[in-house]
Amino acid sequence: MDIQQRPVAGYGIEIWSSGNDLYIHTSKPGSIIRIYTPDGVLREQRTLLSAGMTKIRLNPGVYIVTLNNSAGQKIIIK
Fold this sequence. Notes:
Distance between the termini: 11 Å
Number of strands: 8
Strand content: over 45%
Largest sheet: 4 strands, antiparallel
Strand order of the largest sheet: 1-2-3-6
């Protein structure tokens, strides 16, 4: 299993990938996640209605992920 390091986007927030899946763990309900392509195009936006883990399947590539307008985290989906 290919798991990237779990970069921390802020207290109570983790973002990481494994295979074709992006994982977000947050302790804050109502968090807004945005997934961008490297050239800045918004690919997906979701509001996480509850705290806990969310899994999003993505095509292989490089993405920039923000949560609640935090600084972006680069994620590679293989």
